[in-house]
Amino acid sequence: MTVSETPRGWTHAKLGGLVEFKYGKALPERLRSGSGFPVFGSNGEVGRHEVPLTCGPTIVVGRKGSVGQVHFSAGACSPIDTTYYVDQVPGGQFRYWLHQLRSLELQSLNKSTAIPGLSRTDAYSIGVNLPPVAEQRRITDKLDTLLARVDAVNDRLARVAPLLKRFRQSVLAAATAGRLTEEWRGALASAPINSRHALDEILQGQSGRVRVRGEAARVSREVLYELPNSWAWVLNHELAEHDSNAICAGPFGTIFKAKDFRDEGVPIIFLRHIGEGYYSTRKPGFMATEVWREHHQPYSVYGGELLVTKLGDPPGTACIYPEGVGAAMVTPDVMKMSVNPNAADSRYLMHFFNSPNSRKIVEALCFGVTRLRIDLSMFKTFPIPLPPRDEQVEIVRRVELLFAYADRLEARLQAAQTAAQRLTPALLAKAFRGELVPQDPNDEPASELLKRLAASRAAAPKIQRGRAARAT
Predict the structure, then answer these.
(1) Integer Cα distance of 379 and 333 in angstroms
(2) Is 84 exposed, middle or buried (0-12, 13-18, 19+ CB in 10 A)?
(3) Which tens digit of pLDDT belongs to each residue from 180-216?
(4) 193-387: same fold as 3-131?
(5) What is the CATH number of domain 3-131?
(6) What does the pLDDT average to over 364-376?
(7) Is the dihedral of CA 439, 443, 444, 449 positive or negative?
(8) Are 11 and 434 in contact (CB under 8 A)?
(9) Where are the domains of the chain?
(10) Exposure check for the chain: N or C terminus, fewer CB within 10 A?
(11) CATH number 3.30.470.10 given to 193-387
(12) Distance separating alpha carbons of residues 58 and 74, to the nearest angstrom
């Protein structure tokens, strides 16, 4: 909006001619009393102190760190030295000026490359449209009402994402305990073959099995929950391809060297690439192709393998390495498993490892350990609730159908959140164009307010500087 387009009774002025950004004062945490008046840093309230710096309502503006962030204290407070503060505003309408300063996007004035900082000179040069004081009150009342509704909408929308996460976890818990396909089993014409018996038939005469050292992971019966009659608890290595290298983690020791990493070559799979049910290509890393050929092919995946993390919060996050993207190799913190398709569906195993049921087992196995970790031996003997093969397929179908529904809800949620986030700046822009509330011809023009402001500044005692000040 240009000066000529300002609404009736409004005027245009530079921000520096209307408010003063005063410097906050240092108040280290060790010197704060811990009670009394709020202490403000650039990112909001940071403590309490019994002796305030200001005497009444105060607007605090981030000067260092959270540059341009605007906060409000309804009473006296102590802005620290990373902030500016405003304790006098034209017309005394602090809430109006809170909205006005937030609308100016002061954070965009940051010019520092090392420590973010806001120049007071740059802020002062911003032009603003000033309405009459009476209209400031009407704008403030309207904005307070509308922005409270926007905040309420944002709060409600923010609660949906955790609900969707819980929904997905509930689906996985039901799926890997047999509840999701309970009615499906009941509709079968005949009782399914017990999965333990079917697996034993697959394993008969099979050679080249995965080597297992030590005892199987020990888990109490309370953690190994009751399964449907046709299901069975089996050990994870029983579901692997009949290859001694079907389950392994990346290489340790001298053959895995950072000096062999390249900007291109054979992709290296790190923890960050394993998402809950998805494979990420974020921050790719590569192994020199010739080094991979010589040393690392046993630790490689080619498409369709199960990938599970050793570490994390929690460990055991799983995904499937995508088909058709070429060979890659796992790091020591990632385990790969080539699943025997006759015994198990790799997607079913992925869903199990991502389920709350699996995580309870991990917690039980790692009880007393500071940082939860699944080692390779534990992974090979991890207890798996195994349904019959055709029921695994049905479980995967139902889980992915429900997840697709959750994904659609999530997309709608993100669209709604984006729209809601745009409401606040749109409302502020409308308010300061004079379009939010009607003008009243009986309002005293803002130009009169500026005249009084200029007169009060002219009458204020001048601050003595230099030698004269030191002599008095």
Answers:
(1) 12
(2) buried
(3) 999 999 998 888 889 999 998 988 867 656 677 766 6
(4) yes
(5) 3.90.220.20
(6) 78
(7) negative
(8) no
(9) 3-131, 133-187+391-439, 193-387
(10) C
(11) no
(12) 7
CB atoms closer than 10 angstroms to residue 449: 19
| pLDDT band, very low/low/confident/very high, at 275 (cuts 50, 70, 90) | very high
Contact (CB, 8 A) for 338 and 305: yes
What pLDDT does residue 209 have? Answer: 65
Residue corresponding to tokens 């599970």: 308
CA distance 48 to 36: 6
Question: Beta 78-79 vs 37-41: how paired, if at all?
Answer: parallel
Give CA–CA dist 192/179, Å, rounded: 16
Amino acid identity, position 302: Y
Which residue type occupies 420?
Answer: A
Q: What separation in angstroms does the CA of 420 have from each of 68, 146, 247?
A: 22, 12, 48
Please determine, for residue 80, whether its predicted confidence score (pLDDT) is greater than 80: yes
